[in-house]
Each structure stands twice: as C-alpha cells, then as structure tokens.
Design a protein that fits this description.
261 residues; alpha/beta; 8 helices; globular
Length: 261
Amino acid sequence: MVKTALITGAASGIGYELALLFAKDSYNLILVDLDMTKLILVETSILNLYTCEVICIQKDLSKKNAASALFSEIGETPVDVLINNAGFGIFGTFSQTNWQRESEMLNLHIHTTTHLTKLFLQQMIDRNSGRVLNIASLAAFQPGPLMALYYASKAYILSFSEAIANELKGTGVSITVLCPGQTRTAFQNSVSKTSSEANTSIYSACPKKVAKSGYNALLKGKTVIVPGRFNKFLSYLPRFIPRNVATTVVRKIQEQNRKSA
C-alpha cells in the first residue's frame, strides 16, 4: 500500500529536499506552502524524477485556525508521515520588532505545529502506525537575544516533541525533532540580513544533508537529531556553562554578524 507524506514549507530548502527523499521512496506527497508558484515548480521537478502522486496546497499556516482548515481540506486521505517544516524568523530587539509579524510567527511555530500534530497523531495512533518530524533548530538549546521569540518558539518545539515522543512509546507511532544549525535555505530571506541565522558561513549546512539526517532519524524512530558534529557540540555546551553566559555569547555573535553584514 502506497503511503502519503504531508510536508509544510515544501516549496524550498529543507522541505523541498525532504519531498525528494520521500518521492524517491515511492511516497505520495501533499505539499503545503504559501508560495503556489514555487510549489508547482517543485511538483514538476519531482514528477520529472519519480513516479508518485503530488497534491499542492497553498496555505498560510501563520493564520489562526490554519491547521483545522488544512486538515479539513485533506479530508479522508490518510497521512502516514507529517512534516512540520514551515517557519520563519524575525531579527531585532523585542521592544522594536513588529508585533503583528511576531504573532504570526508564534502562531505558525507553536499553535499550528501543535494542532497539526494533534490532529494527525490521533489518526496514526488508531492505525498503530505513523511518523511525525518537527523542525526545531539549534536555537532551541539556548536563549537568543535579537531573535528572542524565534529562539523561544523553537525551544517549545523541541520540548513539546520530546515529551510527546515519550508518551507515544508502544503505540507504533514516533515523533522526531530535527534541530539544524545555520542552513543555506530561503529562511535567510525571511529575517534581516544582519542576523546570525541569515548569514552564511563555513558552518552553514547544505539543506540536502540536513534533510537526509532528519529523514534517516525519522525512519529509525530517533527522538532528537542535531546534524553536524560542531552543532552537536554547541547543543551540549549550554549544559556546562551558566545560562547568562550562554545568552551573552549568543548576543555577541548576533551583533558581530550584524557588523560584518
């Protein structure tokens, strides 16, 4: 029986690379993104390479009730794998950034991700089979001045995913949370070019490699995956230094990248 993978934020970057991996393994795809033009290009690219069914859905998942609307639109189609990949960041001091945009980011990262997981998880548990991949970030492991809400929302995704993964033991369903560091994706266009998340460097990862790490971890049922040895080191570092020191270091990195941009 052919399985179906639902991928949000599928028009570029990690989402697109994940779509290619699932298509290669003969999954049918439901691809969701705000940019329908890019989604159609992705669909064409996939169908030129693999034989599968691709459904493209244009949806702004940062809006209220977006999860319910998407779930209803999919209807009776069983989803075997859910990938919560859609996301964006905002750079600047919290007192000065735009609240409307921040509210949309929080709704996308927290409310929509949580609600989609809940909606599809219930069906997966009933079938005793299913996998969920939530995309967090290396940012989830420490506070992040100048991107305070982005870091905090990714920390929520990490904590939420780890907790639910424990609850799902013995159900046949697994949750994996992918925590990449800087990655060369369209995410960089959604934040100021002065942000450390937006600046590419020798430490910026290839989205194809990041997607492959997440894909392999998902299939193995791992809970947390941090791609790259240096990123793994950074994820452990806050455990051994005071949080105020970690916060200060992140602030200096952000400010340094701002000066060099």
